[in-house]
Amino acid sequence: MKIAFIIDKTQTFQLVASTLYESLARGHDCTLYCNFLPENLGQLLNVEPKITEYTNLRWINHPDKGHLVQKVASSRSEYDAVIGINLFNGGWKSLYETEQEENYSLEYCWNEIYNQISDFKSKTTLLCNSDHSRQIIRDLSSYPNLESTGSPWFEFLSSFANFQGQKKKITFLAPHNSLYIKHQHLPKRVENILSKLRNWCSDNQFDLVLKSRKKYNRNFKNAVKFNEVVSDTDAMSHILLYATSEAVVHFCSSAINELSFLQTPYLCLAPDFQKQLHTDRIHAPGIKRLHNLYYSGEIFDGRHCDSLQSDEMETDAIIQKLEGLLSSKKDWKAFQDQYFPGDHIGSAGRIIDRIEANYARAQKTSNNEK
Q1: Is the confidence at residue 183, as pLDDT, over 70?
Q2: What is the DSSP string of 289-316?
Q3: pTM for the complete prediction?
């Protein structure tokens, strides 16, 4: 079989990694279309089996995502199946909004929940990350071709849950630009949070690490003394950072998907601010559903994760809650089952099983017609 995988920047490699490895191991001819070169996979290149050693993998990169999408769409007949991302994104229209069978799109973070379209026409199958996300997308978009057979993304992340690396670090995720634009008091509150984290880390022999993002224009590097600054320039740097952190502090980030399967406790800052974002855009219904499920209520159990409201950011509550997360007993399997339900381990294999079965049926039908 010939299977095309299409993603974009380096961070999205983790979405297709398990399915790509499974396809390669079964001997299928695979082509990976992406915006980066193999060396941008960073530390993943040292993980066995090494992806660069597969002879049945062709690597096609181009800096323009639109160019890649069009290239796959125009050569679609060369492939028995295509596995991509970003189903509802207009930039992928030429590939997805067709009558083409055997197109699959992997749910990417919260993108499909944010970008759902009520009258979207396609025969592409959206493979949802969990039973919860499938239900949310179904409710918001009425798109019929939704399946939840486990997440190969979560499967990939789970393989790094017990990664043996440096611990004794607290990681702070830089907040999204939109939060700073909307809330003028936030910069001062963030400075207060960082100062308290820095003092606590120094007193308790922890490193304080900043996880930055290239697309965010606010620079936190000089706010306090960080022991390390990690960006998202390659596929694995931030995953290994989260996996080797004792806890992560963030502003209601979609990184909770990664953290929950890397089994790293997290503290959500200002969920009351997050709830107010993009209330006049297509994102609003999805943001509301995500807020109710992941950024409020029972999920903040003080064991796996907790929250700090915006008006608490000028108090000492962050230290109390951080220490509570670090000292509490965890049951990550129960947490995952409750908030990200699905049979994730082995999901990549099940996806390829399905594609192989469909291919075999098509070949049989073709032979009978002859």
Answers
A1: no
A2: HHHHHHSSGGG--SSSEEEE-GGGTTSS
A3: 0.93
